[in-house]
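This section describes the prediction task in plain terms. A model, or a person checking by hand, is given the sequence of a single protein chain and must write out its three-dimensional structure as a string of tokens. No templates, partner chains or ligands are provided. The sample shown here is typical of the held-out split.
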Amino acid sequence: MTVSNTDPGTSAMSAPRPRRQWLALGAALLVLGAALGWLEQMAASNAPAAPAAIVPEPLPVSVRQIAPASQRAQIRVLAQVQPRWQTAIKAFVRAEVIAIAPAVRAGSQVRRGDLLVTLQDSAYRAAVAEARNRLSRSEVRWLEAQREAQQARRNWQRAALAEAPGSPLTLHEPQLQAARAEVEAAQAALADAQTQLDYTRLRAPYDGVIVRTSVNPGEVVEAGQMLLELLDHRQLEIPVLLDASQWQLLASDWQGQPAQVQLLQGEARWQARLEREGAEIDRASRQRRLYLTLNLPAEPQGASATHPRLLPGETVRVTLPGRRFDAVLAVPQGAYTRDGYVWWVDASRQLQRYRAQPLFADQQHFYLPLPEGEGPAVGAWNLVLAPLSNFVPGTLVAVREPNQADTRLVTLATLTPGAPR
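The expected answer:
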């Protein structure tokens, strides 16, 4: 028989202990929750207020109002001035040089018919005299042959013969023809001798400038030897080369139209005339050739440092008349970006842009076609004068009038078109 040592009183006192532990744990959790709530309130009261949304200010831009208009294209090309005539004056006969005119120096101007070089002519004068003597003798024989033929014809008529002469010799017809041929030969020989004599006096064939000489007094020149070179400095030609696009811009009635010629340096200008086109495509450049003519006065007026004389060999800028275009925009070169955009401000004061290839250009403007379905419906365009590289379409802007800085910027861009901006 086993005897239990458990105390009945001790078991009765230990039964409520688990309940007190749970109550203590619940009270601790409540205290912790209250502390956390208090801390959140303190953090919320000490946190900084959220910043208000920042509204960006409109971007200020300078604009100019331009309206589409009808414009005549201008084609600007570089060309070289050429003389219409350039002659190497050579000796046609062999003779000694006995006189040279004072004007026969490089750079001297001469007029048509001026005597330049005189050659020894005694032998050629003798040839003219001999040819004249031969002509006189042949004319005498021609007269004698005529008289003999007339006498033979009268004798045949007196004979009253029914039949015709048996030979042309009867009426002296061959003798008459031979005498006539001898006269003509003598006349040709005299003309040739006279021409040879005239070649001993070398004269200027037209008004011009002597550019080179190679003749000296006392030397004997041979036939074909060059003595001097003369060019026409008043009648000038300017051939210009045009590519396919430039030729399409040329006015349809270009022939006879005026064209402006200007030196590369300076403001001197002349007016030339479009005369004719070349008959072939240039083999090197594959371009078409157009010829201009320019006649200068005999005495250039105002030839000075400010208005120099136009000389053969000068490189010039030629402005040709083009065809007319309807409704194009004349955009200042400073308002046309390097990547080919034009920026403008719409009715909502937002930036817009469109890309266009210039139809033609001058020193100040690009002339652009209107975009299809873009731009203001009517009226002028608010064109941005100095667009920046960071412009974004749709940006709200504040429009202002252009100031001196904007004008200077546009001017610099005009002087150097295509500059980064």
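For orientation: Helices lie at 8-14, 17-46, 122-159, 173-198, 244-249, 404-415.
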